[in-house]
Design a protein that fits this description.
By secondary structure, the protein is an alpha+beta fold. Helices cover 27% and strands 16% of the residues. The protein has seven helices and nine strands; from the N terminus they run ββααααβββββααββα. A hairpin with a 5-residue loop joins strand 8 and strand 9. The two termini are 35 Å apart. The C terminus is likely disordered.
Length: 179
């Protein structure tokens, strides 16, 4: 549920791997202290964020990332590249019954059980169309690790090894991790 008492600049849409669907309607909201460059917000925005988060301070201070990694209690455990988050990207769940990819052009923040691909040197829609092909689906089913109940694990190493179709001139003979 979207918090009512915070400014829009602190609230972003977010989605989990299990909520991904073709219409991307199952959005959740996430409160973020980070600006579009990945820096902690300052001034009044920071104060509003701290006020909103303060009831959970004790719990947040006891996280291992706070104690071991010297994170401040209000920081995220892991911060994605916020510059990439706002770009067009391709999203997929980390565990899925059938390999599926979704196109995001709204700056959605993928949750921990969701992978995202930000293509470099190519048109994201072309790559997206290729990733949705039967050829890619079959390749992933043959190469992805199996999880429980015949689900597939679309892990980073599998996605990085995915051969990119030569019809995509700009990215011919490259792999996803080289974008």
């Amino acid at each position: 549920e979207r918090p009512d008492n915070l400014p829009d600049s602190l609230i972003c849409k977010s989605i989990s791997g299990s909520s991904l669907s073709s219409d991307m309607e199952q959005m959740e909201y996430i409160v973020t202290p980070y600006d579009k460059r990945g820096n902690i917000v300052t001034g009044e925005l920071f104060e509003q964020y701290i006020e909103w988060l303060s009831p959970h301070r004790e719990t947040l201070e006891s996280r291992s990332c706070t104690e071991k990694n010297k994170k401040k209690w209000y920081e995220w455990q892991w911060v994605p590249d916020m510059k990439q988050i706002w770009e067009n990207k391709i999203i997929c769940p980390d565990i899925t019954k059938e390999p599926m990819f979704y196109f995001d052009d709204n700056g959605v923040i993928p949750q921990h059980n969701t992978y995202y691909i930000v293509p470099y040197n190519t048109v994201p829609r072309e790559l997206y169309q290729y990733l949705c092909s039967q050829e890619v689906s079959e390749w992933l089913k043959s190469n992805a690790q199996k999880a429980k109940n015949d689900y597939y694990r679309l892990q980073t190493n599998t996605l990085e090894d995915l051969p990119v179709h030569n019809r995509l001139e700009i990215i011919s003979q490259t792999r996803i991790n080289e974008y």
